[in-house]
Design a protein that fits this description.
The structure is a homodimer. By secondary structure, chain A is α/β, with parallel strands linked by helices. Chain A has helices at 9-29, 45-61, 76-88, 107-113, 125-132, 142-153, 173-181, 199-204, 255-258, 272-291, and strands spanning 5-6, 35-41, 64-70, 94-97, 162-166, 188-192, 208-211, 229-232, 236-239, 247-250, 264-265. Chain A has a six-stranded parallel β-sheet with strand order 1-11-8-7-5-6. The radius of gyration of chain A is 19 Å and the shape is globular. Chains A and B meet through helix 5, helix 7 and strand 6 of A and helix 5, helix 7 and strand 6 of B.
């Protein structure tokens, strides 16, 4: 049995945040304080946790941070007006509307209303197009950006590698595939999904396997080529009576059986998760620089 | 030796154009005449041929067609003003700036200036994003749209199929991959390119192989799985002293040796080529409907 390299997202994220902190200090000497606004509609507990941790990270870095909590019954037009006000606010460089909003909100219309120069989530059509066009002035969605950063920092060569991305979402799968196939990364990329035939065989081709489906421990040992690098984007709660909380977190990869086969693997938690928030901060810094 | 189905782009394109003609006649009864403006800068002979054939097809369908020929020394600002005037012209529903423009022109900036609702080439960031987001109100670039139409009309099932696209351009490779992996098509899609390792082995996995690289007869018999469907997007001129013109047209696929292996294949010429212009007309009709 092999001992794989653990791609420690926690420590890589900490290093990214250290860089952000230093850069923020430098910007502050020029009178620029990066500002991130997070808009939360309703009181979903998981969303509140995310929003809280974003605000905390902002504070740690010296960012200006604005948390706007709106009642669940906020109308579309009221929400759009909040976004417009943030677009016009010179102290705010990044705007994020916590997903998912209540059902009566048209999320896509809200995203379109965000000034693309402040769209640090990278979901605005302008930024989606820039990703396809490989224009580095755009914002890359935080989770795939975090995966790429982990690969880069860990010295994993994507050039000519066979990468397989399981999942074709707008938030992870598609942008991840576009990043891997770009002229910077040069991987051969396969996008697989729930409708793919013989998913295990497809995954076994991968030098770099990215799982982003949201199905606990779906990727088994016989899905993985010995020596592969495995990036597990899934964060799933599964019931576990042995835990005080009643559940444990698990990825899309059956870690115990897969890890011994890999040359490198991300744990869950502590792999991709911490990278996402770090890249959000990096995007906000980029916005502050580009807008100043 | 097998006898493959020839995916006859000429006849499929003719059928698409027949539909367009019928729909145009119907729109005319409502006082709407679809209008396409083609802007040509300089006097590149190949571009003139393309522009001429677009104008001819417009005339055949009953479209209003406007050909704007500008001298090679036209400035960026002059060209942008022409685009703005066309954006404002209610008789024009589709705007196309023939590529490639002279070197001093910033083509991307010109594309961004086109009203996305008139961007029948599908290259504007708004339409690129709509393609990624699978929003059918956008315009799909004509060549990949033509390939998809050929597959559809020929009854080729993409669901769960392994598709390999060689080439990662903005005009063909990437949009083709996005169309094939969409929730309508559901193919497992691999994007391969010049930096891929062992391209023949990757291509041999394909149930549907799309070659869009611009290298004459690159795809050989041992690159193709028996029974595969092969879509050849390449149109290359190779010297041929036996021809009056001194050249012949050939695709990216070595047709003679590959065809006997395939279940279906597009010829060059007469495959994807005629589809491109047919889809341009279809896009212009879509624009006329959406703008009216």
């Amino acid at each position: 049995m092999n001992s794989p390299k653990i791609l420690d997202g926690k420590s890589v994220a900490a290093a990214v945040l250290d860089e952000c902190r230093a850069e923020t200090a430098e910007l502050l000497t020029k009178g620029i304080q990066p500002g991130l606004a997070v808009v939360l509609i309703g009181s979903d507990p998981a969303s509140q946790v995310y929003v809280g941790s974003k605000a905390r990270t902002c504070a740690e870095l010296g960012f200006h941070s604005l948390k706007i909590e709106l009642p669940a019954e906020t109308t579309q037009e009221e929400l759009l007006q909040v976004v417009r006000d943030l677009n016009a606010d010179p102290a705010i460089h990044g705007i994020l509307v916590q997903s998912p909003p209540p059902k009566h909100i048209d999320e896509e219309a809200v995203i379109r209303e965000i000034d693309p120069r402040k769209d640090v989530d990278g979901f605005h059509p302008e930024n989606v197009a820039k990703l396809v066009l490989e224009d580095p002035s755009g914002f890359v969605p935080c989770t795939p950006a975090g995966c790429m950063k982990l690969l880069e920092v860990s010295g994993i060569n994507t050039n000519g590698a066979e990468a397989v991305v399981i999942g074709r979402s707008m938030i992870v799968g598609k942008p991840m595939a576009l990043l891997l196939v770009s002229k910077i990364s040069n991987a051969t990329v396969t996008i697989a999904h729930s409708r793919s035939k013989d998913l295990p065989a497809i995954c076994r081709r991968a030098d770099i396997l990215v799982a982003a489906v949201g199905r606990p421990e779906m990727v088994k040992a016989d899905w993985v080529k010995p020596g592969a690098v495995v990036i597990d984007v899934g964060i799933n709660r599964v019931p576990d009576p042995s835990k005080k909380s009643g559940y444990r977190l698990t990825g899309d990869v059956a870690y115990q059986e897969v890890a011994p086969l890999c040359s490198a693997i991300t744990p869950v938690p502590g792999g991709v998760g911490p990278m996402t928030i770090a890249m959000l901060m990096k995007n906000t810094l980029q916005a502050a620089r580009q807008l100043s």
